[in-house]
Write a structure and sequence with these properties.
The chain is of the alpha+beta class. The protein has helices at residues 2-13, 43-50, 59-69, 100-104, and strands at 14-18, 24-29, 36-42. It is built from four helices and three strands. The protein has a three-stranded antiparallel beta sheet with strand order 1-2-3.
Length: 108
Amino acid sequence: MIVPMLINAALKSGAIQIEEGSNDVRLVTRKLGATVVLAKLTHEAVYQMSRTPDDPATFAEWKAKARAAGTQSAPPAEPEKVLADAPVPLPVPKRQRPQLQLIQGGVA
């Protein structure tokens, strides 16, 4: 539960840094002019939070599938800030007229 909060904080005010050859992804923010590391996560943890049901179950399976396909790109997690799509309008409940029986205490 704390990890999504840290990711949101990093995306809003900083960056996600992926170091080459490392097993960790650093969530970094630059609030008040200082660089602060919010968390260090493994690639597996980032993959599990960002995968869809159609993706392989583990990061290792995804890597094997990517190697078999001949691509060595990063997992589906995007390091840059992701913007939301167009806003979706909220459903408006249908207004109902009050029932006179309840208000008048009996027969309408």
